[in-house]
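Can anyone check this?
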Amino acid sequence: MKVFMIGGTGLLGSETAKVLIERGHQVVSIALPPLPTGAVLPPEMEIEYGNYLEMSDDELRRHFQGCEGFVFAAGVDERVEGPAPIYDLYKKYNIDPLRRLLKIAKEEGVKHVSICGSYFAHFAKKWPELKLTEYHPYIRSRIDQENVAFSFADDNFDVAVLELPYIFGTQPGRKPVWMLLADMIDGKSPIFYPKGGCTMVTVRQVGEGLAGALEYNKGAHAYPFGWYNYSWKEMFTIMEEQLGMKPKPYITIPNWLYTLGSQSLIRDYKKRGIDSGLDFNHFAPLQCGELYIDKSEGAEKLHVAPDDIKAAMGDSIRLAMDIKHGKVNAISMKGE
């Protein structure tokens, strides 16, 4: 299968390209420069550097020609800030481009699509009583993204969205998302964190999932994507063990204190005229909850294999520590 990918040089895109090529597929990609220093990409992947958002429909059609598969490993997530209303930014980068790309892909004969989504969409559907789409623009945008994507699906056009959780693994030269955790582990104070926990996967497993979606998915499906479920305390303990550190005291804070602690962040956003995709006045039920997903719900359906999550967590936190201490330089992962 020839596969066209948006975002082939990113953490998730490059790993997916590696998996696809290992399985005998051909991969062509558009990606934004710069390439992170030291990043290793599959030499077989054909890459054109540029901004697909600025390309004409005819230019995009050229990339889709002869392709049976399409992977969307781009867009922005909840870490990206912007002026109010922030939903407009998610629409610009996550929803409108996908509507345009899927229309062209379908017209050019693509048959199978896999898309990087968010596990927040899964929990919005699982726990409607929390009104997550009402309070959080980012979560609403991810549900809307799924609905737009699935509107194109039919008997000859398969569309899969992977609702991705915490992802561990590294790409040389690219800053991991775990810098805040590095600050907490590296400091002298005890770790103050809420109760609850999260489902976690490795970068390799995401690559296998996106590739598996092209190979096995039929119709329109959202796959809750998880494998390893850890409490926050267990997550910190694993990271400290991987660093060879003695575990620090861990103090569990109640939900109300977590919400109270978020007020300074809310005030900072207001002062800077910035909007957040998450409403921290209503985020405690998620951050302090058990956001667990069983591997049977999605990952196993896409033929994903077990992986060494603890080693991946160690790699991630070591890189974050090295960046924190100025040992290596890295570009941000935001906006991949």
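Reply from J.R.: I decoded it. The mean pLDDT is 95.
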